[in-house]
Amino acid sequence: MRDDEPASMPVDFPAGTRPSRKLDERIWARFPGVARITTAAVLALPRRSALRRRLVVYWVVRSWEIFNRRDVEIALAAQDPDVRIHYARDPEDRMPPDFAGEFHGHDGFRRGWAAWFEAFEDLRVEPEEVTDLGAGRLLIRMRSVGRGARSGALVEMGGYAVFTFRSGRLAEHLFFFDREQAERAAGLRR
């Protein structure tokens, strides 16, 4: 395989949500620049590097553990101050239309998280595969499970995220329910 081809890797995600921060997360919370520097260093490695592949999967696991724990403040340490978050409309209308749209900056990031956690009392997102697209971009296939806060109905669905990094921080999150939309956004389809 050439280094310019996307590198897909399975993600072995833990069954339970870790209740507290790991050592690296405590360091990131206290010294946010460390997370930025290490992320930039990992993304500077050749895409086929075994170290880069392991660390990208580690970062994806850690990111979704942080999300599942609802640790917004540590998540913000990884976000660019001007981060853009885009939620595509669900083509099967399983999600309310007001979930689709864009959020900007740290305040928008907080509002986006709050909307999901208000709608689902026990939302858990599990990454299943990450594709390293190069140029600081990742495509993540994930599965979400949760109970509706009002209805109590169990909801389980697949989805995709395209993450773009700038200077070691997440600059853009694009979320899709449809694989083709995600692959187009990732530049894998026309």
Number of helical elements: 6
Number of individual domains? 1
Q: Order of strands across the widest beta sheet?
A: 1-4-5-6-7-2-3
Instruction: Give the topology string: H per helix, E per strand.
Output: EHHHHEEHEEEEH
Question: What is the tally of beta strands?
Answer: 7
CATH topology: Nuclear Transport Factor 2, Chain: A
Binned strand content: 25-35%
- Biggest β-sheet description: 7 strands, mixed
> Over all CA atoms, what is the radius of gyration?
16 Å
Overall geometry: globular
Coarse structural class: alpha+beta
| Percentage of residues in helical conformation | 25-40%
Tell me the name of the CATH class.
Alpha Beta
Q: Report how far apart the termini are.
A: 22 Å
CATH architecture: Roll
Round the mean pLDDT to the nearest integer and report it: 91
Spans of at least 5 consecutive residues whose pLDDT stays below 50 are none
Q: Mind explaining what this structure looks like?
A:
The protein has 190 residues and is α+β, with helices and mostly antiparallel strands. The protein has 6 helices and 7 strands; from the N terminus they run E-H-H-H-H-E-E-H-E-E-E-E-H. Helix 1 crosses helix 2. The radius of gyration is 16 Å and the shape is globular. It starts with 6 loop residues before the first strand and ends in a 5-residue tail after the last helix. 24% of the residues are buried.
